[in-house]
Amino acid sequence: MSSDERAPGNASTVLSRRVAIGVELLAVGAAVASGHLVAGLLAPASSPFVAVGDAVVRLSPQPVVEFAKSAFGTADKPVLLAGTAVLLVLAGALAGLAARRRPLPGTVAVAVLGAVSAAAVLTAPALQPPDVVAPLVALVIGLLTQLGLHRAARSAAAAPAAADPAGAAAPDAPMPGGGPVATPVRRRSVLAGASAAVALGSLVAGGSGVALAASGRGIAESRSALTRRLAAARLTERAPAVPESAGFARFGTVPFVTSNADFYRIDVALRIPAVRAEDWSLRIHGRVDRELTLGVDDLLARPLVERTITMTCVSNTVGGNLVSTANFVGVDLAPLLLEAGVDPGADQIVSTSRDGWTAGTPTATVLEPGRGAMLAIGMNGEALPVEHGFPVRMVVPGLYGYVSATKWLTEIELTTFADRTVYWRDRGWAERAPIKTQCRIDSPTGFSQQAAGAVRVAGVAWAQPVGVAQVEVRADDGPWVRAELGTEVNPNTWRMWTAELDLGPGNHILTARATDRRGLTQTEERVDPIPDGATGWPSVIVTVA
Predict the structure, then answer these.
(1) pTM (2 d.p.)
(2) How many CA atoms are closer than 13 Å to the CA of 152, on its beta-carbon side?
(3) Which class for 63: exposed (0-12), middle (13-18), buried (19 or more C-beta within 10 A)?
(4) Distance (Å, rounded) from C-alpha 193 to C-alpha 198?
(5) Half-sphere exposure of 503 toward its Cβ, with a 13 Å CA cutoff?
(6) Interatomic CA distance for residues 424 and 480, integer angstroms
(7) Dihedral through CA 353, CA 356, CA 359, CA 360, nearest 10?
(8) Is the pLDDT of residue 6 over 70?
(9) What is residue 159's predicted lDDT score, i.e. its pLDDT?
(10) C-alpha triplet 48, 52, 54: angle, nearest 5°
(11) Among 241, 215, 313, 255, which Cα is nearest to 460's?
(12) How far, in Å, CA of 320 to CA of 383, rounded?
């Protein structure tokens, strides 16, 4: 038998575009699915697909990151993952077209994609030994699938085309050596069966990986148990009830306390870190007299406090919604640091998340009497939601989140700004970031239609930690009208406001501004969020008829 007869296809065999692209896409899909499954079993953060997305976040130029936040808001992560999937499909399709005559271009493409995903996993800030397994399995599965399907496809394409006079495929014909030769129908059936098996296996593996990651390996049970413990705990400081007069929901403002489901979420974690409360620990070290290692039980044994706090993201644009308020339960951070013994020269606290993200907080701010910096365990009557930092996160009133609000907290290091840099400072953001006095118009919404006469305007303002003293609103370039303020809950929370404006027919620009208790009024100058928070007056356009 000649070599051409033994091979699944000779040099002249050319796969159709559809088949060639299908082979490559199935190989890429099998690699992604197997990697996701193994990651779900061993280490969810090591999923090659998610790791590539994380690397994109880490390595993207800052203007690109800010554009994504402003354009997609809290949907930036699903958009990024969807974009990554589209790029994989395009890469697979191009590789398939290049591999129509021989498998090597497709094999090289799968190997390159595997190497890229492996590099993304291996360069992650919080790399652990089990993390290397998923990308290796993905690479092997991808290569074996590509080679096997390409061989089957070439065999089907090169099968003898003999047919009976009626057009049916001829029965197996004897080879010179005596064995039968598979008909085109049989070879194509083998290819179709193999492709279907790969597709089904990929769906099952990928779905199982998603399910395993979502289950969190006991996270739900751990969180429920911690919620019960918090409910039974005795609080040494309880947040006063929010009076009805604090809000103006009847006029269109958001609820004073934001539900956990509606609380804004901005972070760089495509895969939420998962750790049970029972397995969590915090190390306080660096320039301290003695290192401390604490578990959740240690925190629960300390005086627990409950505080109503408004948190604000530095990426919030003028009039934006990246600001929320919750009742947090936890322990004061300052006594923990004093117990460790802080070096007087340590002007920075570097907090590290389980996923390797870091934030730098001024030590003096955390130790400031009355500041209320805390390690939060509970949020709005339950343990922290997983996406908001379960089991423990930092909360420092009056500072933007990127310098204070580390979620999935694992480590606190006392150091200096000169000796240690952190995630966002490496990307051009400011070293220190106190929250700026700002406000927002919630009602009426932009481009809405209003009846002529008295138009009710309402919104929120914030100036943590000093508090809001006054809000004013105007129509077009008219006089400023002082708004009615809701009852102040505490200086670390936002404050609702409302006012009436007499408007005639036509288009009008409604503008607001806030003044804090220091007498400082927010500036009219429009500044982008980077490097330390946006400024400017919020405004909406309405049509009055």
Answers:
(1) 0.81
(2) 23
(3) exposed
(4) 9
(5) 29
(6) 38
(7) 110
(8) no
(9) 63
(10) 115
(11) 255
(12) 27
- Rounded distance between C-alpha atoms, residue 360 and residue 349, angstroms: 6
Query: Is residue 444 reached through a cis peptide bond, with omega within 30 degrees of 0 on the bond before it?
Result: yes
Tally of CB atoms within 10 A around 230: 21
Q: Give the helix/strand (H/E) hosting 369.
A: none
pLDDT > 80? residue 82: yes
500 within 8 A of 467, measured Cβ to Cβ: no
H-assigned helices in 178-240:
184-215, 219-232
Give the mean pLDDT of 448-468.
97
Alpha carbon distance 270, 348 (integer Å): 27
Distance, in Å, from the CA atom of 400 to the CA atom of 465, rounded to the nearest integer, reads: 11
Residue type, 228: R
Q: Which of 282, 283, 288 is nearest to 414 (CA)?
A: 288
Task: Report d(CA 493, CA 490) in Å as an integer.
Answer: 6
AA identity, residue 26: L
- Distance separating alpha carbons of residues 493 and 246, to the nearest angstrom: 11
- Residues 355 and 274: their CA atoms lie apart, in Å, by 10
Q: Among all chains, which residue has been given the structure tokens 């129908």? A: 185
With tokens 């069966």, the residue in question is 193
Contact 265, 388 (CB under 8 A): yes
Are the beta carbons of 122 and 136 closer than 8 angstroms?
A: no
User: Is the CB of residue 54 less than 8 Å from the CB of residue 120?
Assistant: yes
What are the pLDDT digits (tens) for 189-209?
777 877 888 888 888 887 887
| Amino acid sitting at position 43 | A
Q: Which string of b and e fits 266-289 if b means at least 16 CB within 10 Å?
A: bbbbbbbbbbbbeebebebebbbe
Burial 503-512 (b: 16+ CB within 10 A, else e): beeeebebbb
Angle at 240 between CA 237 and CA 241, to 5 degrees: 140
Give the residue among 391, 357, 362, 361 at the shortest CA–CA distance from 376. Answer: 391
SS (H, E, C) 286-308: ECECCCEEEEHHHHHCCCEEEEE
Total H helices, total E strands in the chain:
12, 22
Tokens of 439: 């406000």
The answer on pLDDT for 316 being more than 70 is yes
Q: How far apart are CA 166 and CA 196, in angstroms?
A: 30
The gap from C-alpha 235 to its chain's centroid, in whole angstroms, comes to 32
Q: Which of 272, 404, 384 is nearest to 330 (CA)?
A: 384
